[in-house]
What does this fold into?
Amino acid sequence: MARRFSRIEQGEVLNEALIRYRQYQTERLTRARRVGQGTPRGASVQLVIDPFGLPAASSIPMRVRVSQRSRTIMDTGVGTHAVAPTTARPGTRQPGFEPAKVVMFARAGEARTATSQITGQPYLRRPGASYTHAFGAQAANEAEMEAYSEIVSALADPLRSFSYKPERHRQG
Amino acid sequence: MDELSPFLTWFTPEEGMNAADMQLEIERLFRRQQAITALLDDRIDEEVVYDLLADDGINPHDWVTNAIDNFEAMLRS
It folds into this structure.
């Protein structure tokens, strides 16, 4: 049985994290565009996925964007969970829809410890490169977990760490 | 980079890990990240996430302080 971590013990510090979270969300929306001054966005490709959150009968293929660098390294693992758009299946964009994503961190020459394997402690400061790739259902009614597991298993390597961002359908 | 990134937890395949062990760790990661996203969307209570993290061998305090560190790095960049 896991030890219970009480609200009193953790609440204050979680609040601090959530304040940062809201700050960052606000800043993303209000930050002035530095046209021509920032780091150029890398090339990206448009792909089509079948969302998990809609029944197969009413499913609408969604168009998503994936960076070219992520596509290059993760393409074979993702397989037909994300495919190029075609005239017959161009995909649509829908506000509030966020596809499920597999996140892969490829370390560069760092010794691993048991703790960092599990928690991925401050990965934003660890040497290496991070890649993110959207994915959808490969077959009608495929579960998100099933698809995710298949992709990670295909890309698995001791020098790579994996995380996951769930598919979200947000309103407003 | 989006706002979920600082809250990510990870799975790293180990040398010699068999398929069943790997599947278990992938499922744990999947479940953790579903719960963390639900917390950020105000759909579940934080204690559910803390217990889940602890069950998976992650200290909730370390997870939260790590998220703060990551936000600091993102806000400065």
